[in-house]
Design brief:
The structure is a single chain. The chain is mainly beta and 557 residues long. The protein has a domain at 1-180: TonB-dependent receptor, plug domain (Ferric Hydroxamate Uptake Protein, Chain A, domain 1). It has 9 helices and 30 strands. Strands 9-10-11-21-22-25-26-29-30 form a 9-stranded antiparallel sheet. A 6-stranded mixed sheet has the order 1-4-7-8-5-6. A 4-stranded antiparallel sheet has the order 17-16-24-23, with no helix packed on it. β10 (196-207) and β11 (212-223) form a beta hairpin. The two termini are 43 Å apart.
Length: 557
């Protein structure tokens, strides 16, 4: 694994396109191979080169040569899969990362959506990896048992339904493995971090004069997390660049057509937000002071920048988002077995158990225009009653509360029982039953409880004791902060609230932080049952139509 500059990533993407383009199977080729291959996306057996849809085959050798512990990272070099969620896109830096998805690898054909990309294993459906989705966690597929990956980029919804509308990715596993194979690898990035290790042991043998085969495989993989601060082009404000609007051209020169509208810019900060708070005392929407009491520097406004300024008192965008690679660990045990009783009956079995763990940290919680009342004790301490007679608005990035983290443990069990054979020279059948189960346990850390947070933020002076307390703790108060929450507390009782001071960076007490923060544990279970059968064949030599000698057909349920 290597994380390089943007220029390097563009170069690798271009090379990757050329590399994989060389392995694309041409559609409607004049000459077919001698071996009949069932092409993903249709039930009709035909030579691979005669497929009417674009088919790309990625061999096991190419996957291993990529040197990745993640299969997804290896096959994402295929341009059709470039939008997939691999190691980098499953880390905390992704602000749109879904619930419990840290460390999960999901395929996305042509960037049409992961739920529109059908993933099969040996032509059969696989249990989903995350709740409320049909997307398969590719980390649960054994890397060293893969013989090839067939990528059908044409729509296959007529065969498989809406989840195959953007295409199908079929992982074909090895059959009749004979011998013993041990493979180990490890390494780090070119920066010396991001250690990864992979080890696999596969053993198999034929028996009964070659009619039967059994193979066992075990895999272990580990990837260490990488924080964005470990990359200067992500964590250093001077080296973190984004393409934003040119203020001189767009705001001063009237958008001169001879000058590019956008340009690379560094030292970017979030407008109107700060780690110690951006405080608006006159409620005009423009911060006047930082939470530490210093005048707020608004920086230079940048158009087309997603709410950023050049310099100023705001929160730097560099290093804001969290990890660029999650910490993951995978253990996988697999069993493949088959026995051919006769040409009319071959029994097959697939079974596996996979355990994946992941940990990643993202951005902290934040507030936009939270209202502080005129009698807020910490507001009065900082600015005095005259400075904030109407209260104040506070916008803040809560680094002192902590970066939000996501950890997950995911266990996948899958079994496939199949029976197939030839009923005649022109007629074949296949029956199968697939059972799959995914159990997930997701832990979220440094999240905040809304009613506790706003109750603690609404701090006042207790007239009876002269001490700072939460307003909700006073006699007669039953509603949490009417300006921000306006509801009764549900996670604590009156008298338990601990006041929270956010006017400054790192000034909150540990007791207040412990009161508003929490870790949640959620569990999910997905069960899959698939029973399928199909009969395929042709009309043989019964009669010949003008279009050709054979009419192929397929029926399935």
């Amino acid at each position: 694994m290597a994380f390089v500059s943007a220029r390097g990533r563009w170069a690798s993407g271009i090379l990757g396109f050329a590399f994989w383009a060389g392995h694309t199977t041409p559609a409607l080729a004049d000459e077919a191979g001698d071996n009949t291959i069932v092409v993903t996306g249709t039930r009709i057996a035909r030579p691979e080169a005669e497929s009417p849809n674009p088919l790309v085959t990625i061999t096991a050798q190419r996957i291993q040569q990529a040197g990745q512990t993640s299969v997804t990272d290896a096959i994402m070099r295929n341009p059709a899969l470039i939008g997939s969620q691999g190691t980098v896109l499953s880390a905390g830096r992704r602000t749109d990362l879904g619930f419990g998805e840290a460390g999960v690898n999901l395929l996305n054909l042509r960037n049409l959506g992961r739920d529109r990309t059908l993933v099969l294993v040996n032509g059969k459906r696989h249990v989903a990896g995350i709740p409320d989705s049909a997307a398969v966690d590719i980390n649960s597929i054994p890397q060293d048992l893969i013989e090839r990956v067939d990528v059908l980029t044409g729509g296959a919804s007529a065969i498989y339904g809406a989840d195959g509308v953007s295409g199908v990715v079929n992982f074909v596993l090895k059959r009749d493995f004979q011998g013993l194979r041990l493979r180990m690898e490890n390494g780090v990035t070119q920066r010396g971090d991001g250690y990864h290790a992979f080890a696999s042991l596969t053993a198999g043998r034929n028996f009964a004069d070659g009619r039967g085969n059994m193979a066992l495989a075990y895999e272990f993989a580990r990837q260490n997390r990488i924080d964005s601060h470990q990359r200067d082009y992500l964590g250093d404000p001077a080296k973190f660049f984004l393409i934003v609007g040119d203020p001189v051209d767009l705001l001063q020169n009237g958008d001169d057509p001879r000058v590019p509208d956008r340009k690379p810019t560094n030292h970017l900060v979030w407008a109107d937000s700060a780690p110690d708070g951006a405080i608006d005392l006159n409620l005009d929407g423009v911060p006047d002071f930082t939470g530490s009491g210093l005048p707020y520097d608004p920086g230079n406004h940048l158009p087309q920048s997603g709410g950023s300024t050049f310099g100023g008192s705001g929160t730097p965008r560099a290093g804001y988002y969290g990890d660029i690679a999650a910490q993951t660990e995978r253990h996988a045990a697999n069993l493949l077995a088959s026995y051919t009783f006769s040409p009319a009956a071959r029994l097959s079995l697939e079974a596996k158990y996979v355990r994946n763990t992941a940990l990643s940290y993202g951005q902290p919680s934040f507030d936009y225009y939270s209202y502080l009342s005129p009698d807020n004790a910490y507001l009065l301490q900082r600015f005095g009653a005259v400075a904030a007679p109407d209260g104040a608005w506070m916008t803040r990035d809560n680094f002192d509360i902590g970066q939000r983290g996501k950890g997950s443990t995911r266990e996948t069990v899958r079994g496939v029982f199949g029976l197939d054979g030839a009923l005649s020279d022109h007629l074949r059948y296949e029956l199968s039953y697939v059972y799959g189960q995914t159990r997930s346990r997701i832990v979220t850390t440094n999240a905040r409880l809304g009613d506790r947070y706003y109750a603690a933020l609404d701090a006042v002076v207790d007239p009876g004791t002269g001490r700072i307390t939460c307003r909700i703790n006073l006699p007669g108060e039953s509603v949490v902060d009417p300006n921000n929450w306006d509801d009764a507390p549900t996670t604590f009782a009156s008298g338990q609230c601990v006041p929270l001071n956010l006017l400054g960076n790192g000034v909150a007490s540990q007791a207040a932080l412990d009161f508003v923060r929490y870790s949640s544990v959620s569990t999910a279970r997905i069960d899959q049952h698939v029973v399928s059968g199909q009969v395929t064949g042709d009309l043989g030599s019964l009669f010949v139509l003008p279009g050709g000698r054979y009419v192929r057909w397929a029926a399935n349920t």
